[in-house]
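FYI - complex with iron/sulfur cluster, inputs then prediction.
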Amino acid sequence: MELVINFSGGKDSTAMLAYLVEKFPKVKKHVVMADTGWEHPDAIEWSRGICDRFGLPLHVVRNRNKTFLEMVERRGMFPASEQRQCTSDLKRDPINTWIRNNITDPVVISAMGMRAQESSGRAKLKVLTRDKRETNTVRTVWKYHPILKWTEAQVRAYLAERGIPLHPVYQHLGRFSCRVCIYMSAHDVRQVQQHDPEAFRIIAELEDRIGHTMMMGGNLADYAAGKV
Ligand code: SF4
């Protein structure tokens, strides 16, 4: 059995990494990060720094054919929560390809840092389920959500107790995600405008070019103007 830790550098996947290192010291671990091409500029360097604390290398994977911005530009639309190509094409698939190409062990546990508290969809997840898509005659892949029942306060306390820092982006945003993410609230969008104006401008220009908005409530200009 080998453990693949899906890592983003955010608080939840960092707490999960620390927890798995403590809970399963003898199990072989691989930390894999999917780079959507729309990460914070220091996301990979930051993530490597976290992995260094645990003596684990970070494997960074990408979709060979597109980044987040290229995907949006080609499709002429942004992903939506019910049709989330960003996570399937840019995160899930590259990580599963990495697993197929790099792990020969017949049992793979793919650990993800989702928490039930985050959304109604995540609340329906189980801690452990067989990944039917990735399981075949030579390999069984399990999806494992070890911190599913944790609250945000527990995550923060767990990291604080171990002296593991949070990325500075948490000073103004609740999540360390893509620079602008389809799930951001109006408050988050205005924080991005203030703290990462380049990312704000890139998405605002892309919205104008393709005639489609990233958020349900309107375009970024409307968010900036306080109309949303
Ligand atoms: S962080 Fe947001 S925009 Fe980026 S891949 Fe995930 S859901 Fe999509």
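Residues 2-152 form a domain with the Rossmann fold fold (CATH 3.40.50.620). The pocket of iron/sulfur cluster is lined by residues 36, 79, 84, 86-87, 90-91, 177-178, 181-183 (CB under 6 Å).
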